[in-house]
């Protein structure tokens, strides 16, 4: 273990030999600092190199191989995994992967828009009050700390065809569907759960940004006779642009990789209507043993996430950095 | 983004709570009405689940739903405590979350000390990589991570869970941000007193960054305790499941017995909520700081 690495080294340099010349002394000191620094870094470097850097390169490399665990060794197949996936685009409805991509696009657009608006509204409400702000903030944040498995279990029950949500709907005269078993309603039900469980986290970002807004600008606007709505639309909102970008980008990255609820609640059903790319990657690798094919799917998903984030940066964030 | 971090988890930050103008009274009523509505939607499902975990199976599935358990029963919890596998899952979760949290706190603080307060060749490279890997989504690492763990015969062991989580880039990032701003004199006076580097780190620097350590502890614990995807991939046999994974298995066994399932979900929820109510400040500030994690 590298828990007590630096002691002998630094004691050495702290009592240098009397005959060392200053230049040597400085060099020896520098070398000992380098060694000490790397000893402090060692455990982290191990994890960083193995489980972040190597794993990423390995993941991309895998997508060029065919791997069936156990029978034959991995065979290099070039772009074949990708070609196979893209050729399925001719009939995307029959392809699990492209079905999951279609689902996740719908899911991401809806979830990101609604959770961003909800997070902003909650933050603005909190920012406009003095009394009880901390208490309300704590209460709002509860869904964000609860585990996705526990909330999935709870919502499985609430979404029951004779569950609490349909009971509440029946109070206003609406006959609710059997949410999670309905091809049309299963995905929207998961969207709603995701908005519910993540909006509060992004509310915190908005709240932090609102508290850092320059008050003099808002006061100047007030002196000039700007109304509440005007100063929000023309001053607060533009100043929040970097935060909006952050929230939209992080929300998108998270939504694209949705897995827990799709696996836990519906397992992609009914009729693949809640199949997400991460679930399809999991199924392909761990149920079908197609690790290479699954790795190719991961790379496509990664590139998509990356491109969408860059587009978002151009359209949301640039305005604030002139 | 880095600015957001360093400005938002400052230890003692003056709260700037001055709304520009006092809203008119009817506006205030509307605002509070909405706030209360959001409280109900945020906390309501969990509170109602907690209450319902004391109901009988018939009551849990009753339509229209009842609010108060009648009769009030402990049997759901008794049944769960009587299940040796369930206790094992809880133990596994404590091992995973506990070990990941302790090791990550120590190792990321050590790395933060080197990157934030020492000078050595390769420092910028390591820091740049730290920032870069925070952008890599788990989509790309899930499968290779499993293959590596599997190759080293670590699948279905605690090591598979703990090793990848024991020094996390975003924790290192938080620690660096904090260590960087401490005054240089701290080490110089320690050096004059003849303290070794390890003692300087352990006795002088660490106490100065307690808020960062707390944020790292809480985020790591929350992440590991709630983690579902990685244990699902890495663990194979029932006795090695963590609690979220066990609940998944539980769900397929007690398919329609929601009274048991709801009581089971409370074991995953209540520990983290207790921590949250005690350390809420650090939960929230840590969340802002991890905004760059992605």
From TrEMBL, chain A:
The keyword Transport applies. Keywords: Cell membrane, Membrane, Transmembrane, Transmembrane helix, Transport. The chain crosses the membrane at residues 35-60, 104-126, 138-159, 183-210, 231-256, 291-311. GO terms for cellular component: plasma membrane. Residues 1-20 are annotated as: Disordered. It comes from the Bacteria. PROSITE patterns: ABC_TM1. It is a multi-pass membrane protein. The keyword Transport applies. GO terms for biological process: transmembrane transport. InterPro entries: ABC_transporter_permease (IPR051393), MetI-like (IPR000515), MetI-like_sf (IPR035906). It is found in: Cell membrane. Residues 105-312 form the ABC transmembrane type-1 domain. Belongs to the binding-protein-dependent transport system permease family. This is ABC transporter permease. It comes from Dictyobacter vulcani.
From TrEMBL, chain B:
It is a multi-pass membrane protein. CDD domains: TM_PBP2. GO terms for cellular component: plasma membrane. InterPro entries: MetI-like, MetI-like_sf. One of its GO terms (biological process) is transmembrane transport. Pfam families: BPD_transp_1. Its main location: membrane. Residues 90-279 form the ABC transmembrane type-1 domain. It comes from the Bacteria. The keyword Cytoplasm does not apply. The chain crosses the membrane at residues 29-51, 94-113, 125-146, 158-179, 228-250, 262-284. Keywords: Cell membrane, Membrane, Transmembrane, Transmembrane helix, Transport. SUPFAM superfamilies: MetI-like (SSF161098). It is found in: Cell membrane. Belongs to the binding-protein-dependent transport system permease family. PANTHER family: ABC TRANSPORTER PERMEASE PROTEIN MG189-RELATED, ABC TRANSPORTER PERMEASE PROTEIN MG189-RELATED-RELATED. This is ABC transporter permease.
């Amino acid at each position: 273990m590298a828990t007590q690495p630096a002691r002998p080294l630094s004691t050495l340099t702290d009592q240098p030999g009397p005959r060392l010349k200053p230049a040597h002394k400085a060099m020896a000191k520098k070398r000992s600092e380098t060694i000490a620094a790397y000893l402090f870094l060692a455990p982290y470097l191990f994890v960083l190199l193995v489980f972040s850097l190597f794993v990423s390169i390995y993941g991309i490399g895998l997508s060029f191989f065919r791997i069936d665990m156990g029978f034959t060794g991995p065979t290099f197949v070039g772009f074949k995994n990708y070609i196979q996936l893209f050729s399925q685009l001719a009939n995307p409805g029959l392809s699990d992967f492209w079905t999951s991509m279609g689902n996740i696009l719908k899911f991401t657009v809806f979830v990101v828009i609604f959770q961003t608006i909800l997070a902003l509204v909650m933050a603005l409400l909190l920012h406009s009050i003095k009394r009880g702000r901390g208490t309300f903030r704590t209460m709002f944040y509860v869904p964000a700390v609860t585990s996705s498995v526990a909330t999935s279990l709870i919502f499985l029950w609430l979404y029951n065809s004779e569950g609490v949500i349909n009971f509440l709907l029946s109070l206003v005269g609406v006959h609710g569907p059997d949410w999670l078993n309905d091809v049309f309603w299963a995905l929207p039900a998961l969207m709603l759960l995701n908005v519910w469980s993540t909006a509060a986290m992004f509310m915190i970002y908005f709240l932090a940004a609102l508290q850092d807004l320059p008050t003099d600008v808002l006061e100047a606007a007030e002196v000039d006779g700007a109304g509440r709505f005007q100063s929000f639309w023309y001053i607060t909102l533009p100043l929040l642009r970097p935060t909006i970008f952050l929230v939209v980008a992080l929300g998108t990255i998270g939504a694209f990789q949705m897995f827990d609820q799709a696996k836990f609640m519906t397992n992609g059903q009914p009729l693949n209507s809640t199949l997400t790319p991460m679930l399809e990657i999991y199924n392909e690798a761990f149920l079908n043993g197609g690790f290479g094919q699954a790795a190719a799917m991961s790379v496509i998903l990664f590139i998509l996430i990356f491109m969408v984030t860059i587009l978002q940066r151009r359209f949301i964030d640039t305005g604030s950095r002139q | 983004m880095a600015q957001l971090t360093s400005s938002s988890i400052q230890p003692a930050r003056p709260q700037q709570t001055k709304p520009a103008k006092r809203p008119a009274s009817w506006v205030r009523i509307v605002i509070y009405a909405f706030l209360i509505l959001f409280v109900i939607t945020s906390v309501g499902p969990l509170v109602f689940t907690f209450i319902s975990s004391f109901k009988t199976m018939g009551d849990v599935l009753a339509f229209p739903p009842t609010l108060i358990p009648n009769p009030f029963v402990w049997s759901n919890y008794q049944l769960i405590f009587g299940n040796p596998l369930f206790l094992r899952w809880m133990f596994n979760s404590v091992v995973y979350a506990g070990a990941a949290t302790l090791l990550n706190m120590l190792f990321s603080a050590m790395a933060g000390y080197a990157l934030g307060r020492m000078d050595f060749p390769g420092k910028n490279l390591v820091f740049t990589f730290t920032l870069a890997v925070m952008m890599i989504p788990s989509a790309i690492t899930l499968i290779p991570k499993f293959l590596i763990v599997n190759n080293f015969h670590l699948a279905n062991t605690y090591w598979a869970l703990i090793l990848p989580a024991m020094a996390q880039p975003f924790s290192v990032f938080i620690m660096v941000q904090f260590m960087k701003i401490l005054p240089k004199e701290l080490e110089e006076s320690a050096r004059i007193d003849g303290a070794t580097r390890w003692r300087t780190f352990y006795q002088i620097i660490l106490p100065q960054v307690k808020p960062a350590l707390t944020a790292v502890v809480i985020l790591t614990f929350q992440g590991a305790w709630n983690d579902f995807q990685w244990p699902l991939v890495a663990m194979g046999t029932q006795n090695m499941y963590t609690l979220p994974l066990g609940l998944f298995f539980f769900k397929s066994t007690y398919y329609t017995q929601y009274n048991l399932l709801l009581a089971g979900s409370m074991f995953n929820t209540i520990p983290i909520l207790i921590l949250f109510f005690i350390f809420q400040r650090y939960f929230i500030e840590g969340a802002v700081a991890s905004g760059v994690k992605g």
